[in-house]
Amino acid sequence: MTKEPKASNTNNELIIYRLDEIKNEIIEVKRLYVTKEELLALKTEIQGLGNEIQTIKKSRNLIGWLYPTLSAVFSAIFTYLIIEFIKNK
Prior knowledge:
Layout: H1 9-32, H2 36-88
């Protein structure tokens, strides 16, 4: 029966040290990547923000149309009142 060579304690300590380094590197890599749950939450939030933007755009279109119209009506009424005031004087 032949004896198998045993690893020295120094080799074992180096292997354990290297495994600890690898574990720490894996933890760092995991911190950089987003999990599926986080990805779904971000996707839902982005869709919600998209809906809010569409609502804001629609309301701005209404105000964009309404403001000049009301301004023109107010100007016409004001001009008419000035003309009537000058005529009566």
